[in-house]
């Protein structure tokens, strides 16, 4: 009584196809698929690997600022 049945879903799908057309729906499906693929790839990445990349940038910045501080004292 309160749920959406198969018949209602088919009617909604037919209306969506009429509004957008099959080419647009195919394009939107492809875009959605690549977005999901990219999201899954990002979720599967090793967090330790991303943490290793971040500290590499930090010492370079602190080393250059340490050199600047040393030059200021002279």
TrEMBL record:
Pfam families named among the record's database cross-references: TatA_B_E
Transmembrane portions of the chain: 6-22
GO process annotations (BP): protein transport by the Tat complex
Gene Ontology molecular functions: protein transmembrane transporter activity
Entry annotated with the keyword Cytoplasm: no
Compartments, as annotated in UniProt: Cell membrane
Family: Belongs to the TatA/E family.
Subunit and interaction comment: The Tat system comprises two distinct complexes: a TatABC complex, containing multiple copies of TatA, TatB and TatC subunits, and a separate TatA complex, containing only TatA subunits. Substrates initially bind to the TatABC complex, which probably triggers association of the separate TatA complex to form the active translocon.
Highest taxon above the source species: Bacteria
Entry function: Part of the twin-arginine translocation (Tat) system that transports large folded proteins containing a characteristic twin-arginine motif in their signal peptide across membranes. TatA could form the protein-conducting channel of the Tat system.
UniProt keyword annotations, A-Z: Cell membrane, Membrane, Protein transport, Translocation, Transmembrane, Transmembrane helix, Transport
Compositionally biased tracts (Basic and acidic residues): 42-59
GO CC terms, sorted: TAT protein transport complex
Stored HAMAP family: TatA_E (MF_00236)
PANTHER family assigned: SEC-INDEPENDENT PROTEIN TRANSLOCASE PROTEIN TATA
Stretches for region Disordered: 42-74
Protein name in UniProt: Sec-independent protein translocase protein TatA
Membrane topology: Single-pass membrane protein
Bias (Polar residues) ranges: 60-74
